[in-house]
Amino acid sequence: MTRQFRHLALALSTLLTACASLPPARTRQPEIAAPVTAAVNPASTPAVTPEVPRQATDLWQALRDSFAMEDCDSDPAVLARARRNTRNPAQFENQMRDVLPRLVYVQHIAARHDVAGEFVLLPWIESHFQPLPRHGNRPAGMWQIMPITASSMSLRVDGHYDGRMDVPAATEAVMTLLRQYQDQFHDWRITDYAYNAGEYAIRKIIRKHGMPPDQPAIPSWPVRRVTREHLIKLLGIACVVREPERFHVTLPTLPKEQQLVKVELPRSMGMALAADQAGMSVGTLKRLNSAFRGNQIDVHAAPYLLLPTNHALQLRDALLNQPRDSPADDNLKSAATGTFATAPVPTSPLAETHTVRRGESLWQIARNYSVNIAQLRHWNHLHGHVLKPGQVLKVSGAN
Question: What is the CATH architecture assignment of 353-394?
């Protein structure tokens, strides 16, 4: 453990940590740090004696070590998918850099549940790790969970909050489900099939055809094409992580200050107030915590925010130094009536911008900021799709 990381750990006063348990022989999980929680107790300063697990020196090697399925050459379709993923290496690297904080967070949860490392990459093929909103009775969140599935996972979905969009809650639920599938089927390939097609459909196939042999890597089963392709896509992105040099890409690194952590909140509050105290834009805070559908953070739905470590420290310090009877209490949710007080609105919001990186597309930027391409064109007076590296785009409607 480096001195810098130890210092960071001491600053996050009441970090809740969990060390990954030793996995069975087939799935070698590395010993990596669990997601940390910066808890807040405004009444008193907590003791600075957290237990901090050792970190893996290379997060990508840690992920490779936790893989449990076949490699790049197991099936021509897997290799073809890996090549398709990386046909534009610069764009792939930019996309991976953008999703890395969420990927690392998922990696910690997967290790704790002893889930094969390939499933850390599952949101890549579901949503590119983006918090995709719901549209009617459609899947939502980076895990693309259906409303009926959310109910079976005990994820709350209503007009104010959608647990499918809550990265910590949804990831815990998904990893619990994948572990249950694996304990039932004892084959990670079938676990993926069950995630895509549903447990009962897979059990019906097993009753009729039995379990598949270890080979081929993509089981020759009478499943839908989309289910077979789901596993091919999963192994395809895992293939790139296994052998990035084979596809002429460089996998990014994640600075410690960008690692996502949970900040426990003592009370409900407005998004604008939380963003101001965390030192970040409202838009960024909302994208990281998109389960809250309005401008209010309801601790009765989820008593935490997910933030980069540096902003988590700033919010924690602001809450610790805040008097208990501060104006922030005006934003508390009324448990008796179920209503919200009006959230504070900034008097002069700053326009949020994005600097275009090499290989980025207008579609990708619009998706990352949860806006549509027409809005981006309007805000930036664009008449086509061509972007130049270094170009600064407005990505919100603020003036």
Answer: Roll (3.10)
